[in-house]
Amino acid sequence: MSLPEPLDLGAGRALMVLTGAGVSAESGLSTFRGGGGLWEDHPVEQVASPEGFARDPALVWRFYSERRRGAAGARPNAGHIALARIEERLGDRFLLATQNVDGLHAAAGSRRLLEMHGSLFRTRCSGCDRPPFADCAAYDGPPLCDLCGGLLRPDIVWFGESLDPACLDLIERFMIRSAAAGGFVFLAAGTSGSVWPAAGCVEAAGSLGARTVLVNAEPPVNLHSFDEFHQGASGSILPALLGTG
Ligand code: BV8
Ligand code: ZN
After folding, report:
1. Of the candidates 211, 178, 193, which has an alpha carbon nearest to the alpha carbon of residue 95?
2. Which residue of the set 80, 105, 117, 230 is catalytic?
3. Residue 109 falls in which region: left (phi positive, over 0), alpha (psi -120 to 50) or beta
4. Interval between CA 144 and ligand 2 midpoint (Å)
5. Is residue 239 scored above 80 in pLDDT?
């Protein structure tokens, strides 16, 4: 596989990045639609949903406890590290929005980071409005809130739940501001483009005149939305594409 030339990020151009489960695959974490999107023979969309949690909170906590254990043992790969390095170089001309909840971008040093779908390592109460709290515990049975007795749940955006509007607003404002300043590149990596509203970001970027670039192991459903496609492993391609090799 030949590696790409570095992106043109000179003359004040900004970089907006969207990542998905594929960038963590080389850290040993399974993607959503790789293994047929099933977990214990349940479609992930059913387990990662309020309905699934209401139906069987113990099963949902088994799912997230297993993923917490997996992610806790994982290390950032060269793709995560390349994104942290380009952030150091670009400063406020860089923003990373991730669909991932595994914490690996933060572990690699990314700080201008939006975790659009929440975090595996935070828990919140489904019964009261106590603030979400850091939690890396694995649970057999569903834990209860010591303040209200309600069911605790992972602080994650499930299918059918809205993302934090402030997060979407930050992405939109960054892209509008970047387009007005020196223009920007929109880079997506390791995502099948199948989950909304994250999947809509590339169209929004293109409508603002961004150059849209994709790094993915296989052509995704929204390949037509991209100007440029580099097929292969993000751990190899991102360091070359970002010039942080
Ligand atoms: C919402 C937390 C309003 C859970 C996740 C419009 C049209 C159609 C449907 C909808 C729509 N708007 C809303 C919906 C419904 C739904 C949705 O999009 N459904 C899909 C399945 C059709 N969206 C929602 O419900 C969202 N909420 O819009 O609120 C609303 C409210 C009520 C009713 C309707 C709307 C909430 C979405 C967030 C769900 N939570 N995560 C958890 O993690 O446990 S999403 C989940 O999927 C993960 O975050 C994951 O990251 C994400 C997306 O998947 P990908 O990251 O892309 O991962 P995937 O496995 O699919 O692909 C990996 C890719 O990597 C592959 O292409 C592979 O080839 C590639 N790859 C593999 N290895 C490598 C690699 N690439 C490079 N290098 C490698 N080494
Ligand atoms: Zn509570």
Report:
1. 178
2. 117
3. left
4. 8
5. yes
Q: Which atom of ligand 1 is nearest to the CA of 196?
A: 18
The residue whose CA has the least distance to atom 74 of ligand 1 is: 22
- 22's CB contacts (< 8 A; 6+ apart) are 31, 189, 190, 191, 192, 216, 217, 234
Q: Tell me the per-residue pLDDT of 75-95, one tens digit each, with 9 for 90 and over.
A: 999 999 999 999 999 999 999
Do 82 and 244 meet the contact criterion of CB atoms below 8 Å apart? yes
| 162 contact partners, CB below 8 Å, separation of at least 6 | none
Distance from C-alpha of 29 to C-alpha of 33, rounded to nearest angstrom: 12
pLDDT at 46: 82
Q: Which residues pair with 213 in a beta bridge?
A: 187, 228
Instruction: Report the residue among 19, 32, 44, 163 best suited for mutation to probe ligand 1: largest number of ligand atoms under 8 A from its CB.
Output: 32
Atom of ligand 1 nearest to the CA of 156: 2
Mean pLDDT of 169-196: 97
pTM: 0.96
| pLDDT score at 30 | 84
Q: How many CA atoms lie within 13 A of 17 on its CB side?
A: 35
105-136 pLDDT, tens per residue? 999 999 999 999 999 999 999 999 999 999 99
Distance CA 118, CA 131 (A): 13
Residue 184: strand pairing partners: 14
The overall average pLDDT reported for the chain is: 95
